[in-house]
Each structure stands twice: as structure tokens, then as C-alpha cells.
Amino acid sequence: MNRAMILMLGAAISSAPALAQGGAAAKEDFKPSSLNQPGQQYPQVNSQGYARFRIVAPDAKAVKVSLGLGGRGGTVLTKADDGSWVGTSEGPLDEGFHYYHLTVDGGTFNDPGTLNFYGSTRWESGIEIPARDADFYALKNVPHGHVQQVLFPSPSTGTQRRAFVYTPPGYDQDQGARYPVLYLQHGWGEDETAWSNQGHANLIMDNLIAAGKTRPFIIVMTYGMTNDIRPGSPGGLASFDIRPFQTVLLNELIPYVDGHFRTLADAPHRAMAGLSMGGFETKLIAPKNLDKFSAIGLLSGGTFSMEDVRATPDFRNKVKLVFVSFGSRELDRNRTNLPPGAPPSDPKANAEALKAAGINSVFYVSPDTAHEFLTWRRSLRELAPLLFRD
Amino acid sequence: MNRAMILMLGAAISSAPALAQGGAAAKEDFKPSSLNQPGQQYPQVNSQGYARFRIVAPDAKAVKVSLGLGGRGGTVLTKADDGSWVGTSEGPLDEGFHYYHLTVDGGTFNDPGTLNFYGSTRWESGIEIPARDADFYALKNVPHGHVQQVLFPSPSTGTQRRAFVYTPPGYDQDQGARYPVLYLQHGWGEDETAWSNQGHANLIMDNLIAAGKTRPFIIVMTYGMTNDIRPGSPGGLASFDIRPFQTVLLNELIPYVDGHFRTLADAPHRAMAGLSMGGFETKLIAPKNLDKFSAIGLLSGGTFSMEDVRATPDFRNKVKLVFVSFGSRELDRNRTNLPPGAPPSDPKANAEALKAAGINSVFYVSPDTAHEFLTWRRSLRELAPLLFRD
User: Fold this and answer.
1) Closest to B223 (Cα-Cα) out of B299, B155, B161
2) Hey, how many other C-beta atoms are within 10 angstroms of the C-beta on B37?
3) For residue A8, what pLDDT is reported?
4) 3-state DSSP call for residue B317?
5) pLDDT attached to residue A94
6) B351 to A50, A319, B288, B325, B368: CA distances (angstroms)
7) Which range is least confidently modeled, A162-176, A291-305, B23-37, B306-320?
8) CA atoms of B301 and B308, how far apart (whole Å)
């Protein structure tokens, strides 16, 4: 694994939400976060993007929320008269989804008010700061596809492995239709639940399809590691090897999907994309297997240069799309809190060089977001309409 | 809602695992629970069914686990030299799945070591005490069905509602086959995730089908309430009304399922069953809608008497099966910790009266289990082979 990848993975661990002016009083129009557990009033979010937390722990000495300000270690809660601990972020958080957890008297716990999402190799608390463009991933009264949990045999790992498969609206009714497939990978510390739970990939597709903006296709999401990937663990990141996962994907999952779903089972109708570590995996696997994939998407997961093109035999004949995206905060080198995983070479210049060379290269930057899920939701919204345009 | 129902629902809230001899030293062969988060070493379970907990919270004053002994309020942890809190249940817990949570300095949190499951109207920690017969719900190298998340339009509630649909192995390959459907309801405080997550309904079916013990059929699981059901809340249990859910089920979900899945869309091929509150719902809905359902399953959710038979027009012509089950600890009136929801009349005598009257009545008791999920996993194992035998 190269150093850029290690750095990028590191960026995935720490969420670094941006702050507007500190010190300004938050507007008192707080509402429960959309990700709260049923009936729970906290955490709350206001119209400016401030987050307010309330944790009941009357005998605790200290309660802190990991989410808050870059470099300040989060939001420290203070004890109220009723035995609860309350606090508000010092400023607005970036729009979109954030992972977080509590530190209660030195122990790491989740906020009992909100739902959990798998990230950082644990189920973390999640909060949603409504985005200006939240409509594109909202649950709306449109025809909905299904998200299917499948368990597929994996002789290479000696297990039954899990994947989630999005089938678009209409899949069940028109028994004659066949569909292209996007293999879509999560980031480090996440798993096969991320793109549906945090990413709303199914709702993004439902809305795009209802608006006639994309061809309906299948999305397959599976766990992108075959070993224990916690930092410092045996078989962890330091010994990362793409081959075991590549075997699962190419020899086990793809045949299972083509055998159980009505796919168009050829390279022109198969794409691979991934976020962060999933982008690195995509770049390691797809260009070397152009008999299987014809489109490549790297979402905050590296860049594709002319050097990469030249290193890929038959690239011009077989690759129909190279899509590269980042959050704007990952690219702004003037910011002091630039994530350590910022791209080592200029990804925009690389994308333009490919385009100038006649390759279908698309570069997208998500405004005002970092290495977090709103970047990737928007990236999927941009990527989907570009895929499978035969 | 009658008093028996309120009592039964109360029983669903408190898990009351049984204890063998207290005081005996636990065997030191503890292993991580099968429900732990990836890589987590605690909680652990030994071969006798003792549970051991370890929580890191170096500055806490008191840490307690809600799971432990009936009437003693759980397992109190003690602080170890390394800042963690550790403790072992005073005796073996009942085999199977248990919900629990932590009390840390007066606050309610989940155990960061284990996965969460929706119960008691919150996502709770879960632990699995391996059952002697655990093989029937194990993940094995057999063909697996899929569990599909569907979002169906519900005009009556003005929402897009969620259901999970189990389609059996072979469903995708044989595009001509049509299947019967079981509508299977969760208990109070749970939701549509319970039967797959806690119940392993999909694995139970996969294993039964692989062994040739049941006809393959579809299972549909949806949320059985349309209002806020937390005790004391407006629109809560006290004002329980079956009609809104019945409208969702009969007028919205069933047409959606029959329109999107290859079902046998008639009463002989449609059954309804549920656990605890879901059993009460089944009894309220199915006998009054025998144009839609021909089999009825009450799992720790009430009994069916000759009086009920006489109150149901056309019962003998239309009902092909009445299945009633309980955990043995729910029936043993000699036990001092008998749950408050124990059946008001003798369910076994009721079942035998139906049988004597020529009705296909089956009564099942799960050995050594209470009002908990092993009772219901076993009940599904017993129920499935009896369904749709035309």
C-alpha cells in the first residue's frame, strides 16, 4: 500500500467539520436530527447547522461529544440542574452526515438519542445537518427500488459473505428486462451497510430515475476487506493486500450476482466505483480487469493520470468513463485543517489532461464538504447519469 | 385493548432470564458473544451460559448491566485495576437472545462491544447465549434466500412505509414459480427489523428449505404500529386501535407485495402470525379477514379457544391451521418469576379443545425459554413446515 493511501485512510477516520464564525449566538430554532431514534428529542440541529446535544447521566463527572471543532476535540457538555449534560457546537457544522461518539467519564459510548452507523470499525452515532440540496436524497413519494441482503458463498474465504443489492423500481414487474450493474465500495472502517444507511444510495437512485435523469441500473455493495483492518491489528492496514478481496469480487460475487439477478453480464454494462479506500480498491482492480469493467469512479479515493492511462493496456478502447470527485475541503490547500489525505497530485489537472487526450473524464467537486458522506452522496448523483450510456 | 394484552406487552419489556444455582464458580471457558461488533472481545459467554461483561470507563462511579437475575436488577460491575469495569452474571442465563443495556453513572447507554437490536422502543445491546439446538438458525453453507427492504406507499398514513421481504432460495432463478406468503409481526417495542436481526427468520427458512422440511415461501415483515407506542405518550398503548395498522396491512402492503413479488395471491396461500403484541394483532385481524388469510399463528401472543372459533363465521371451512406457542417459562405457574403476561386461560387446553373439534390446531412449547426470541425462533421452525400444505 502506498503512502498516499495510508494518508487518505487516516483522513477517513477523523471528521473535521468546518466552523463558521465562533462566538456568535446560535439561532434558537433547534429541531431533532432526522437520524434520531423514534421519539428522541436530542441531538438537535438548528437552521444554521449548529448541533445541540443532551445526555442524561446524573452522576457522571464529564461528558464530551467527539463532534465539534477541528482541533478542539469536540463539544464539551455541561451539567444542567436536571442531571442532564447539554452543549451546543461552537459554530455550524458542515452540511450532511457526521459520525460521532460520546466520552462519558473516560469511556466511549454512543448517544442513546440517535441511530448508529458503521464507521471507524465500530457502530458510531450519526447526526444529519440538513443540506441545501437535501431533496436529492430525500424519501419521496416516487416508485422505490428494493435493497436486498444477499448471502453469497465464498470458497476463497471459507464463509458466506454478505452484500446488499439495489434493484431499481420496475425490476420486479418487467420480468424480461436486464440491467447494468455498478459495484460500489465503502471506505475504510465502514462496511457494506454504509452506502444504503449513511449514503442513501437507494433514495438517490429512486429520485434520479423518477426524474428521468439516469438509466435504471443495479448497485451491488459488499464488504471490501477480507482481513482484520483495525490499525495495529495483525493483518491490518500495514499488510493490506488487494488480492483476497479481488478474488471475492471477481470470482465469487460477480458470478453470484449475474446468476441471481437479471443483469447485462458484460463489461460495457459493468462499472466499479468506491469512496476513499473503496476508490483505491477500484483503481487497483478495475483497470487491470477491463474484460469485466468499462467505467471507473474514484470518490475522494485518488486520481487518475495520463501515467495511469498509459499503464493500462487497451484503455482507450475499453474504458468508457473515468469519474473522479472530491469534497471542496479536501482540495483547498489554503485551509489550515487540510486533511492529511489530500491528493498528492492535482486531481483536477489530471482529469483535464485525460479529457484533452480524448478520454471521457469527468471531475466533480462537492461544495463546502470534506471527507464525509455528503461528498459521496453528491458524487453518486453526478456519476449515475453518466454510466451505461450505450 | 384488553387487560390481558396490556399484561402481555408488559412482559415483553422485562427480560427475566432464569438462573441455575447461584454462587457456583463459573467455568473459565468464556468466548466473545457471537453478536459482538467486529474485533470486540466483550461481552463473553461461557459453556454454561454465564455472561461476562467488561466496560472501559475509568472515571465512572458505577456501572451496571441490566441483564442478570430476575428481581436483582442486573449485574453490578466492579472496577478493575486497569480502569475497566468487569462482572459476571451470578448464574447461567437462559439460552438464546437477550436485550440489555448499561447504566453508567445514572445514564442509559449501550455496551460498545456488541451490536444493537431494536427492542423496548430503543436500539438495545444484544447478547446470544448459544442454545443446544442453535444449528437450526445458524448461518450455514446452504443456498440462501434474500431479505429485501421495500418502501411501499401508504396513503392512509401519508408516508412511505418500510417492510422486509424474505424471498426463498431459487426465487430469482425460476422466474415462473409463484409462492405463498406469511405476514409475520414483531412484538411491542420492536420493529420490522426484529424477525431478521434478532429472529434469524431468513436463516431458519434457508435451513428448513435445504433440509426439505418446508415448502419455500415468502415472509413479509413490517412495522405493526402506526402511532407512537411508548408508554404514557399521546396515542400510546392505552389508546391502541388495530384499525390504522389493519388498513396499512390489508389495503396497502398486501397489494404492494402481490404487485411486486411472484406470490400466490389468495387466502389459501396467505398466512398471518406474530409474536407477543404481533400475536394479538394477528388474532384481531386474521379471523375477521378469512378472504385473505387461511392460517393463524400466535407466538407468545394469546390463545385461541372454542369461543373464538364460534365467534368466527366460516371458521371450519376457511382456517387450515391455528398455531399457538409459548416459552415453557411463560406457562410454569409454579415459578416465582412468572411473567405478568402469562396467559389468562390454559392455552394448551384451548388448543386441545380445537383439535378434539376437528380443527387443525397445533400447540408448541419451547423448552426452558421465556418471553424472548429463542421461543419465537423455535416457534417459526415448528410453524413453517405446517403452512401451505395443499
Assistant:
1) B161
2) 17
3) 42
4) helix
5) 95
6) 59, 67, 19, 10, 21
7) B23-37
8) 14
Is the Cβ of B34 closer than 8 Å to some Cβ of chain A?
no
Q: pLDDT of A357-385, one tens digit each? A: 999 999 999 999 999 999 999 999 999 99
Low pLDDT (below 50) residues in chain B: 1-22, 234-235, 334-338
Which position has the grid cell 443483469?
A: A263
Going by pLDDT thresholds of 50, 70 and 90, the confidence category of residue A390 is: confident
Residue recorded with cell 486520481: A303
Min distance A316 CA to chain B CA atoms (Å): 36
DSSP A188-211: TT--TTHHHHTT-HHHHHHHHHHT
SS3 B164: strand
In chain B the domains, ranked by start, together with CATH numbers, are: 19-93+96-129 (2.60.40.10), 136-386 (3.40.50.1820)
Interface A-B, measured as beta-carbon pairs within 8 A, has a size of: 139
- pLDDT (0 to 100) of residue A68: 80
**Residue to test with chain B: of A34, A148, A191, A228, most B Cβ within 10 A:** A148
- Bridge partners of B192, per DSSP, are none
**CB neighbours of residue B95 within 10 Å:** 22
Report DSSP letters for A73-141, one per residue: TSEE-EE-TTSEEEEE-SSPPPSEEEEE-EEETTEEE--TTB-EEEETTEEEEEEEE--TTGGGGS--S
Q: Assess whether pLDDT exceeds 60 at residue A242.
A: yes
Residue range A250-258: mean pLDDT, rounded = 98
Find how far residue B38's CA is from the centre of its chain.
24
CA distance linking residue A230 with residue A243, whole number of Å: 18
Copy the grid coordinates of residue A4. 498516499
DSSP classification of residue A382:
H
